[in-house]
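Letters spell out the chain; backbone shape is given numerically. Both lines appear below:
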Amino acid sequence: MRTRDRILEAARTLFNDEGLAQVSTNRIATELDISPGNLHYHFKKKEDLVGWLLRRLTESLRPFADSHESVEAIEDLWMTMHLALEVIDQYRFILRDVDFLVREYPALVVPLRELVGRRIAAMRAVLEKLRGLQVIDATDEQLTALVLQVVLANTAWHSFENLLPVGARGSVSGTRAVAYHLLVMLSPYVNEASRPYLDYLRGRYAT
């Protein structure tokens, strides 16, 4: 692996595990057993590292922008959502530490907003497709609210989870908790034929 890619991977892991605010470029260099000068040859400042990781997250989520074209049932919707959750979890520090990110690196606010905007558009396209196929039943107002709720859970859960009292966290956490709550959100809108499969999935993620 090239030094540049090693730096990005080490930064991603450390940001995820220890927090964006807590990890310095010197800490990353020490983790890789390279000199700070070597790191700064590839990335002049920490903001550059964060910006490149945001680009990688954006590119990893780009295939989901057209996922509505292949979605025809709850199974398809869930596979799409599950895979997107896995990608987001790999870069969870970006959304978990978003307050620090936008305060310290204002130049990254626009691409971050664009990313969320694409997630909203993609989810709307998927749910509108399923409504047209009568897999879900929702008014325009309900569908708009559901789109925002789903994207909100995708993007804000890791930050929100840090604020939950221990007793309120339930038996699952992290990506599994997001998955469970997404299924609960969808439950009131699915047709009777799809409900048994959705309930089966919800049961899997509840424990």
About this structure: Residues 187 and 199 are 8 Å apart (CA to CA).
